[in-house]
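Run log, item B.
One chain of 258 residues. Sequence copied directly from the ordering sheet:
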Amino acid sequence: MKYKIGEFSKLTKVTVKTLRYYDEIGILKPAHIDRWNNYRYYLQNQMEDVCLIREYRNAGLTIEEIKYIMSGTDPKLILESKKSEFEERISQINKLMERIVLVKYTAELKVLPEITVAYMHGTIPTYADLTAFVFEFAAECQKTNPQLKCSEDYCFVTYTRQEYQEKDIELTYAQAVDKAGSETEKIGFRKLEEVQALCVKHYGPYSKLGDAYKAIMDEISAKGYTVCGDARECYIDGCWNKESEKEYLTEIQIPVKL
């Protein structure tokens, strides 16, 4: 059975304007166009095509994706791709919800006491190489200063460059020790004076440390503090004693003054 565009529109619950648009972009062509009056006519079996187009749109497919399907492309290929895309978006949304709901920081003003530290300055290819850098420091200290006693409670990293780096990262690793030892080409010693610092504890992967920095800088701004030293990233719990990144504990310490 053949229907004029108005009749077909009424039966399929799709506007004439939309049907003309589908014709224009090639998603759904009329079965016949009268060459004398340009009337568009649709067949009964094209109602199924309209139903499919509606379902594809409801599923979030783009017009271009639907056009591929209607021109003969296997819909399973596009639908599988779309499914993976949606799953990725759902994962991102869940992570965002987790961050909004769970991440809460409390800034604490502390006095960091005077300490002596052993330190090593260097460059690592990526942040994933930080652990190896720390192990290199420990091995060098043990070799050159076997009598040195380290404080397992306090070690930290400071970053040399002003801007954030993703590769070739310059840093200094420092470990509290009982006294200064013999310096080498790699290992140095220095005394750090007592300083007041605003501190925030971060639980979770290092990739989210930016959230902790935001929280602490917001507090510095709100309280009118002035930053007077490099930020220290103190690694309290990490891959050396925890199996999951969710259990990592890092404290950001930023020296401040009023």
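Observations after the first pass:
- The chain has a mean pLDDT of 86.
- The CA atoms of residues 158 and 232 lie 5 Å apart.
Flagged for discussion on Thursday.
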